[in-house]
Amino acid sequence: MSPKSLHTRLKVRGKRLIHWIQRRLQSAPGGSWIFPHGILALLVGLLGLKNVLPLFEQIHIIQSSFEKFGPAQDFAHLPGIFHIPGGIPKTLIGLVQILMSVGLLLRSRMIWAIILLMTLLSIAVDLFQSPLPEISLAFSLLLLGALILFRKTFDQSSLAIGTFLSVLSILLLMGYGIFGSLILGKGFAPPIQTLTTALYFAVITMATVGYGDIVPRTDDARLYVVSLVILGITVFSASLSSVIIPLMNERIKRALLPEKKMPTRKNHTILIGTGPLARSTYQELTSRNHPVTLIVPHEISDPPFAGCDQVIGDPADGEVLKEAGILDAQAIISLLDDDAENAFVVLAARDTGSKAKTVVSVRSRANFTRIQTVEPDMILAPEIIGGELIAMALSDEKVDGETFFRKALFMDRRLKK
């Protein structure tokens, strides 16, 4: 067996295993929240907790140091936790991971990207530590692989997610401003010694008001104030744009565009795929006034699918199929490029209890018998039959309409009845 064919077989079997696990977990009560989003959220939360544990262990030391010596004047006089190699970066990374882990349940693409970045930073910090934290590094690498493997399931973007990120960013910034100015309190004139004063200074600094009643007098305090001003402007600008602009756009759309009626998904055909065969099938169905619902990973505005009824999601997910109206559909046609994905769509449709006819396409002759095992109502093999008809024509074998349709369409017993 060649390395290429071995790689292809392992890839197909890996996808089958993942889909099998996913279907089993999602069939359980609340399963759509468990896999993979709930498991990944738990892993991210555990990694974040592990990263902030050094801070929890040092809290009493920081508290006693603050009570004994008061605020520090510069970075050199900070408690020992701040001088541990990678201590503060790992703590900040862990805090972000814990807070963002909840957002993974929302299937947010932005939150997925932030957690992926935090995981990469955590790995980078581990690599620069001595001795090398092997367990932590292995856990981070495992999480990184899982995030990349299930990246396609995080495809949501909404105003709620934007608001969540905005509020979270502002809270993190406020924490940085309050505790940072309090810890470096002796670096200011007059010194910042209470939480109230720290809150006041953080707010007027981030708002770029600057009354001048509290000013930094050490280089470290000045650098801290510069970072606070830059972060304040950046976070507040990004937060406002991520919440207000979508709201304004939505209101403008409602005012200028006619209200779009929700399609009635009944006695319709569910189409999966956007390739040439899927496009041709869609055009032929719509030309006969047959309602079609398209399942795609993201919205498509290109012709011929512009303006058609679309459902965003994984076609092998039973919940997505139910949203597309599988229980009231006449047929479901899966014309994806991956034969294994087409088989999984048929299995998912069977799991919903739908009586809709199932039609799938097959690209590889080697996968034809495997597709037959899932018992679709119809199997289309245009590429396979195309090659066979060409060979028949060149060999002067009889090729007529009956031969073509007999070879192009493979139906099981139910369809023949």
UniProtKB/TrEMBL annotation:
Q: Does the keyword Membrane apply?
A: yes
Query: InterPro entries of this UniProt entry?
Result: K_chnl_dom, NAD(P)-bd_dom_sf, RCK_N, Trk_Ktr_HKT_K-transport
Q: Where are the transmembrane segments?
A: 33-53, 110-129, 135-151, 158-179, 191-211, 223-248
Top-level division of the source organism's lineage: Bacteria
Q: Does the keyword Transmembrane apply?
A: yes
* Protein's recorded name: Putative potassium channel protein
UniProt source species: Leptospirillum ferrodiazotrophum
RCK N-terminal domain boundaries: 266-386
Q: Which GO terms describe its biological process?
A: monoatomic ion transmembrane transport; potassium ion transport
* Localization terms from the record: Cell membrane
* Pfam families the UniProt entry points to: Ion_trans_2, TrkA_N
Topologically, how does it sit relative to the membrane?
Multi-pass membrane protein
